[in-house]
User: Which sequence fits this backbone?
């Protein structure tokens, strides 16, 4: 047991990484097969764009609600129970996705699938953070995300293998996601529960999983809000720039056709590299904040490059997608920082709700993106609304990062009272 705790690449890390791999496969699969799946349901190009954004927003709403539910249960019932229950829900959701026949059914199923997906990362990062020594915690959680994020690459190649020219075959991609989830359950049998959670599990005097505790204390509320805002650029990049990279390319007169699925696949391959690297950068700098700042600056530079691609080749667009992906490879570090700022009795609540609040923020980001288009010159509205939205997103993220406390090497064995 103690030997396992000292190892970075132990069973808990492997299972959490593979769990996140399946999570990301399922989460990004919709964005990758959005166009062919909606076309097969009889939607025209305009409806594909409008319904496509609506469905992804509904999915994010499911993540937002699910994050709160799973987070509370993670602190009340245990990290492992949430991992098991969440994967069963999103695996069933993906199988159900293979049977939808209308956009409305599609949206409802993605909502419930999103609720299931909400529990995976937070519970996994919390478990790993509490099992791994503090000196190696950042590297371990980065490995979880770095390996897990390659699930998007698998989703892309599965879509290429099963979706035919007429758009059929997309249902099989969802069935595969459901099957992968149930296979993962078999690996989880040997994983141990967090010792820190076990210590407080039976103590009825300790308030566990009290979501409202985050709002009743000014200092806790500030830490919670800044933890969420730091990650705004991540889903702005994924949910706006990459998911609709084909439309941006048309507006920027790119020389060739851009595939959103390919943009996402390339970006996520780079994100996985960034997510592994940031753990070592944080270790080298002895700072979570400095490593996060570096990756935010890289992402900002890539965004500026993205909106200066007028007349560019498809190759250059995909290169920028890769740089955008690498820069946003701070997902595990952002969740780790959130987990490190709060006590054991509400740590799972925070680590599960924070990433899903960040994902759910895509609803607000996309609402701003759409609203700006109606107030700008129609000829340039799509592009201008894109980069103006980016300015707001990065402004909030940099402010939040400045206000966040440093957590490198922090001892996690404490309670919130």
Assistant:
């Amino acid at each position: 047991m103690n030997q396992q705790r000292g190892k970075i690449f132990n069973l808990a890390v492997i299972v959490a990484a593979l769990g996140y791999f399946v999570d990301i496969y399922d989460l990004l699969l919709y964005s990758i097969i959005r166009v062919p799946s909606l076309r097969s349901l009889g939607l025209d190009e305009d409806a594909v764009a409008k319904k496509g954004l609506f469905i992804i927003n509904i999915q994010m709403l499911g993540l937002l609600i699910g994050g709160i539910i799973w987070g509370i249960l993670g602190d009340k019932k245990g990290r492992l129970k949430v991992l098991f229950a969440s994967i069963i829900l999103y695996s069933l959701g993906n199988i159900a996705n293979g049977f939808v026949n209308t956009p409305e059914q599609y949206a409802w199923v993605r909502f419930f699938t999103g609720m299931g997906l909400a529990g995976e990362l937070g519970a996994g990062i919390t478990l790993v953070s509490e099992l791994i020594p503090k000196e190696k915690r950042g590297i371990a959680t980065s490995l979880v995300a770095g390996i897990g994020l390659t699930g998007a690459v698998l989703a892309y190649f599965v879509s290429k293998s099963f979706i035919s020219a007429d758009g059929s075959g997309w249902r099989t991609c969802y069935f595969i996601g459901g099957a992968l989830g149930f296979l993962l359950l078999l690996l989880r049998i040997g994983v141990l529960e967090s010792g820190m959670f076990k210590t407080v599990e039976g103590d009825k005097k300790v308030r566990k999983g009290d979501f409202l505790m985050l709002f009743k204390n000014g200092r806790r509320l500030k830490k919670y809000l800044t933890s969420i805002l730091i990650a705004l650029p991540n889903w702005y990049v994924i949910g706006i720039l990459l998911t609709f990279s084909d439309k941006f390319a048309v507006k920027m007169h790119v020389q060739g056709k851009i595939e959103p699925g390919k943009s996402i696949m390339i970006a996520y391959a780079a994100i996985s590299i960034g997510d592994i690297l940031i753990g070592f950068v944080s270790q080298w700098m002895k700072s979570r904040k400095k490593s996060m700042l570096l990756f935010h600056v890289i992402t900002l530079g890539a965004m500026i490059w993205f909106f200066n691609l007028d007349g560019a080749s498809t190759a250059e667009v995909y290169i920028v997608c890769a740089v955008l992906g690498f820069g946003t490879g701070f997902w595990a570090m952002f969740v780790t920082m959130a987990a490190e700022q709060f006590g054991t009795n509400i740590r799972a609540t925070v680590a599960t709700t924070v990433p899903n609040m960040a994902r759910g923020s895509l609803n607000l980001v996309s609402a701003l993106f759409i609203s700006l288009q109606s107030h700008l010159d129609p000829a340039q509205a799509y592009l201008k609304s894109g980069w103006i939205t980016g300015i707001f997103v990065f402004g909030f993220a940099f402010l939040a990062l400045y206000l966040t406390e440093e957590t490198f090497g922090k001892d996690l064995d404490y309670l919130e009272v």
Residues 2-189+206-403 form a domain with the Growth Hormone; Chain: A; fold (CATH 1.20.1250.20). The two ends are 30 Å apart (CA to CA).
